[in-house]
Amino acid sequence: MLVADWILRVIYWGSIVVGLFAFVHAVLQRADAYSAADRKTKPIWMLITGGATLALALFQVQGPGLIFWVPAMAAVLVYLVDVRPRLIEVQRGRRNW
User: Fold this and answer.
1) pLDDT tens-digit readout, 56-96
2) Dihedral (C-alpha) 7, 71, 24, 62: value to the nearest 10 degrees?
3) Which partner from 9, 42, 55, 60 sits 20 to 30 angstroms from 33, CA to CA?
4) What percent of the chain has pLDDT over 90?
5) Which residues make Cβ contacts (< 8 Å) with residue 29, sequence separation at least 6?
6) What is the C-alpha to C-alpha distance for residues 52 and 67, in angstroms, rounded to an integer?
7) What is the pTM of this model?
8) 3-28 vs 66-78: helix axis angle to the nearest 10?
9) 31-53 pLDDT, tens digit each
10) Residue 2, Cβ density class (10 Å: 0-12 exposed, 13-18 middle, ≥19 buried)
11) Which helix (H) or strand (E) segment is 95 a member of?
């Protein structure tokens, strides 16, 4: 196998792990935290992260499946970099240093 094939394989499996992490995190959060964080509801984020994880698992990083893989990865990353930190902040309470 070429080095590029190994890199794509690592990206593929890594994206599935990241998607599963986002989905499990969305499932484990309190439903009221989503509204307190001024984000979409818990069922919507569970659907988004679960569907995105499924798409990440079904479609490859290369070829025609890339058109589904990229938006799925974007959805998972939006959850991780925008929603997740806000949920953590809301549930922990603001800390004023």
Assistant:
1) 999 988 889 899 999 999 999 999 999 999 999 898 876 65
2) -20
3) 55
4) 70
5) 42, 87, 91
6) 13
7) 0.87
8) 40
9) 999 988 888 999 999 999 999 99
10) exposed
11) none
Please state, in angstroms and rounded to a whole number, the distance separating the CA atoms of residues 12 and 85.
Answer: 25
Report the distance separating Cα 38 and Cα 87, nearest Å: 9
Contact 44, 50 (CB under 8 A): no
Q: Would you tell me how many other CB atoms lie within 10 Å of the CB of residue 6? A: 10
Distances (CA, A) of 7 to 27, 50, 62, 64: 30, 24, 11, 18
Residue 60: strand, helix, or coil: coil
pLDDT at 96: 57
According to the model, what pLDDT value does residue 97 have?
55
CA distance 73 to 75: 5
Cβ-contact 60, 6 below 8 angstroms: no
